[in-house]
Amino acid sequence: MINLRYIFRLTRAFISRFKALILVSMGLGIAFFFFIRYSLPLLSDSRLVRIGMTGRYTLSTLPNPILDMIGNGLTKLDSNGNVEPDLASSWETPDKGKTWTFILKNNLYWQDGKRVVSSGINYQFSDVVIERPDDKTITFKLQNPYSAFPSVVSRPTFRSGLLGTGQFRVTDLSLNGSVVEQISMKKKDGENIIYKFYPTEERTKLALELGHVDKIVDVLDPSPFISWPKMKISEGSNTGQYVGVFLNTQDNLFKDKSIRQALSYAINKDLLGGIRAIGPISIDSWAYNPQVKPYGYDFAKAKATIDDYKKNAKAEEVSVNLSVTSILLKQAEMIAKDWEKVGIKVNLQVISQIPSDYQAFLAIFDIPDDPDQYSMWHSTQTATNITRYQDPRIDKLLEDGRSEINIDARKRIYFDFQRFLVEDSPAVFLYYPTIYTIGRE
Which residues form a coiled coil (predicted)? Predict the structure, then answer.
């Protein structure tokens, strides 16, 4: 008891004598804590943002928004897909699209300070002869006329590796074989961005949950973060893609155009989410045709067509195998219910990659910047024409569209292309996906 009383009196005497010093020390400690917590990051020259994205990319297939931060192309595209000057001040074709000559702007520099000259413009094209008659001129000689070539060279060019002309310079790159896992970039003002890539959307979300990234972009499903109180979620429409059901037109059932149309009429597309897509070309494109057949929900027409088919084919049932990746499973289930209402038995097949053989396939399609879709719908393109679609009229329109130089004539061609393709229904065009950016407040 004596020892405790002694310690208590000693402590009280110490506090009484040095209380001013103790209060000052505590105040300085609290101030220092808040300085470290809030002020120091604002004073740092290395402002860092870590961004998570879903996808497996190589150096040659990195997303355009990232490449545009690092470099510039000879041209660039505006929001409607029109071609504008970028590294090149002008261009011309003396032979209606077979030869393209670009003139570089003055006073252009790479990120290491070296001047941009034609010898450093490094595009890799097969079957294209590239000539550089002087430092400011670069000429591309194609085997066949191609009117969309100026939009092709809007993709940023790099002198070596990823050394470009953009505002951000690559400071570090992490590869797993040829696959990019992480890319670090720095701006002259000190801003730092690290992009981290994950194979699935679930892995991307987990990275945000664990604090490995500060935000994630281009997310299709915002759950579970909707219910998280300190998460900021913004949404937008990706009109550079559309969600559609691609139909194998060589399948015995889908050789019949009326069946393909019935499948489209049977889907209540307004319930799937996103802005409606009515054709293969983006709603933002200069070549978009707003007057194609919309295929609004028409249960009666769809059911009557399916009933007539069963009667004429003397079939008790019509069945469809619908393949889908897990990210669109919810939409696939809604489509399956709509088809079943009109008398179609649906077998859902969840897959991990594009099938080599299928009957119907629900997927997200990347819309080309230029309206030329020769590789997707022309009958000769067996490797990329996934619907195995064949139509001489569509073939001719696609051939004309990529050889016509006059922009107004091209627009008329692609208006007809959309009108006839949508009427024929080798695919059911559904909607432009809604995408989310999610990060901590």
Answer: none
Report yes or no: 344 and 359 within 8 Å, Cβ to Cβ: no
Rg (CA), the chain: 29
Distance CA 268, CA 266 (A): 7
Q: How far is CA 379 from CA 18, 242, 322, in A?
A: 91, 22, 23
Has residue 120 been placed in a domain?
A: yes
**Residue that the structure tokens 């402590």 belong to:** 11
Q: Rounded to whole angstroms, what are the CA distances from 349 to 324, 332, 397?
A: 6, 10, 35
Q: What is the pLDDT of residues 189-232, one digit of tens each?
A: 889 999 999 999 999 999 999 999 999 999 999 999 998 988 99
Which are the contacts of 439, defined by CB distance < 8 A and separation ≥ 6?
Answer: 208, 214, 215, 216, 231, 232
Rounded CA-CA distance 60/53 in Å is: 17
DSSP string, 338-380: HHHHTTEEEEEEEESS--SS-SEEEEEEEPPSSS--HHHH-TT
Neighbours of 161 (CB within 10 A): 9
Higher pLDDT, 50 or 37: 50
Residue 367 domain flag? yes
Q: Classify residue 412: in a domain, yes or no.
A: yes
Q: How far is CA 318 from CA 251, 339, 342, in A?
A: 13, 10, 10
Q: Is residue 165 part of a domain?
A: no
Residues 406, 289 share a domain:
yes
Domain region containing 376 = 241-434
Q: Is the peptide bond before 224 cis (omega within 30 degrees of 0)?
A: yes
For position 140, which CATH number holds? Answer: 3.90.76.10
Distance CA 425, CA 415 (A): 16
